[in-house]
Amino acid sequence: MFNSKKFSKNNIQIASFLINNPKLTETWGNVYIVEPSNEREAKLGQLIILVALSDFSSKTSQKEIIERMIKEMQVNYYRSDVNKENLNIEEIFETILQKANQEFAKIIRISQNNWFKKINILVAIVKNESIYFAQIGEIFSAFLINEDRIIDIIEKVRANNIPFNPLKLFSSITNGSISVNDNIFFTSSGIFDFIASEKIKRIINDWEVNSAISKFQNLLSNLKTKNIFAGVIIKNSFLNKKNEIKTIKLAQKNNSLFELANQREKTDKILRPSFLSNLLKIQKKWLSLFSNWQIKFHKKINSSPSSVALDSVGKISLMPNSFYDKPWNILKKCGIKKELSIYQPTGEEKKHYLSFITRCPFLLKWTNKFKSFSFLSKILFISALILALFLVYSVIWLARKQTKDNQIKENKQLLEKIESKQNAVGAALIYKDKKKAGKTLEEILKLSEKISKDSPENLAKLQKIQKETEIQLNQLRNITVIENPLMVTDLNLLSSNSSLSEEKFNLVFLNQQLYFYNQDNSIFKFDFKEKKIFSIFKDLQENKSFENAKSYDKNSILFSNANEIIKFNILNKNLESIDLKLPVETKKIEDFVVYSQKIYLLDSENNQIYKYYPTQTGFGEKNNWLKDEQINLNEGVSMAIDGAIYVLKSNGEVLKFIQGKKQEFVLKNLELALKNPTKIWTSFNSKYIYILDPSTKRLIIFDKQGKVQKQYTSEKFIQLKNFVVNEEKNKLYILSDNKVYELKVE
Predict the structure, then answer these.
(1) pLDDT score recorded for residue 677
(2) Exposed, middle or buried by CB within 10 Å (0-12, 13-18, 19+), for 654?
(3) Helix axes 375-430, 456-476, angle to 10 degrees
(4) pTM, full prediction
């Protein structure tokens, strides 16, 4: 059972929920948010009661007693004289609790058992931003939640181990004020066994009360547990959130539960220095640096040999050689790193530099101006230039930071949207709406692609979301993902001959045994008892490669290439060429099937299926089995027969024919379409149709009406080649990259 209520007065929002499965739990409970008249609510506030009775079973008299007590508490509280000018809420609250204690004492005296020890009640009054509450029992807890913390308000009192007094069940009142953007959460403590405290904090902080209630419902309502989940969320959200940390103001009365308030851990504010103050500090540091550099530079000039240089206007000026040769020596002594120093020019570069200044009027003008400055002015000019560059860098840095912050915000919004859709998937599955659940899961995958992959944390979240979504999608599509399929044998290890190991094998099933053949037309048999492969024949025919094989009778296998079929007897190793008298226009036998000793050939290019009857000397003349000349078998790749003939096309279409005429047949409930299927199989005794789709690494099982029954996939299904079915033992053998895997069909 799920119940929720919401009330909003001024800036205080109150919402409640109750989740209880009466078939599983022996605990009865309820949540009451009393709705008095507007006048009484304005004077006395909102009365909230949470109640639970453990080991309830069928003793309805206990429930009736509790409900009567709750009703009396409601009546007694709102019966107070609202016309009084100065109503003391705490005194009124204390009075109704005393009356409740007296009533409980009367009941306990005449009771023949200790059922009252299973009573759990939390009573609270919310008046504007003030809150008062008291409790009986240990099921319910009270938590203060803000952006930074989640605090169990009454944890300290429980630690004090107050002895149980049956004559005074309500023993203390806790009161306080709810600061802006603080939240109070009254709840049954068992909720923390199923939802992490950090997630509870995030839900209550980030979501409006109705949305928070919905999230708790989605997370808890489908759990098969004996727990009762009840809760009340009280939010003070009148103003936008501030940067400072808010605290709930707590007052103590009669050994109050809010003893915790005076012992809670102090939190220091960490204020980020403003950009301007940082900039001023850097400017001061640079000015100090260049003042020291000025003194050292003068000393360097006085102590260094000078050289004569021609300036841009033809005047001769004295410059220290060290200024051109190794400028970073001076800067290094002044505390400036070499990375920030000027490049050391060669003699030719010095001349080119002077020549460039001479030819550029703009640079010449500003060079002369710079030279006219006093030494201190030059230093200040350079400082200002450096500061300007720093400002430009800061603007770029801030722009990048803003972009990163926007990306973080966008990622957060994406994750919240994905979480919301995940909750919607849960709700859709509860109501067995698989179509909606599948569509929502596909939307989640599309949203997840937009998550930034610039950090390991985001990448981990993305991978987790995609993995969980793929698992749910697979469940909806009846796809069984096999992480480690049982490998029967590895044909790559068949021979030490490296050239042989590179060849591609194929398989055929005869007399409950697996036979393999390769491009050299060598035949091998797998022994299930010894788990080994034995060579039984080499080189069926020279210079010919057989692409397909089917069992013919108990001792024979038919092999086919483009336009030829031969018969191989596994007992005497005899080879026999079968003359089927193919039409001249037939260039390739796409597939063939043996059914009731008759051979059927698929000629996709000529849109026909040929049927051959056995005779004493081989097989008779061909018969064109298809009667409809308008049939298009182009792209037909495989054929299966159970009385009707099924032709699989590479585009995923399956055509069904009976007595040469096409029948209505469509594959159903296949959310992930066939991409490039290669083989179809069924038989007269089988209830199912099997299709191999290598492009999506799947083997799909349909019933004879075309409805999906099962799908099998694995990351190890690489280069799927073929499969055979052993329905007697409910097993499939799949050939993938020259490895044979065994699947048990359920």
Answers:
(1) 96
(2) buried
(3) 20
(4) 0.48
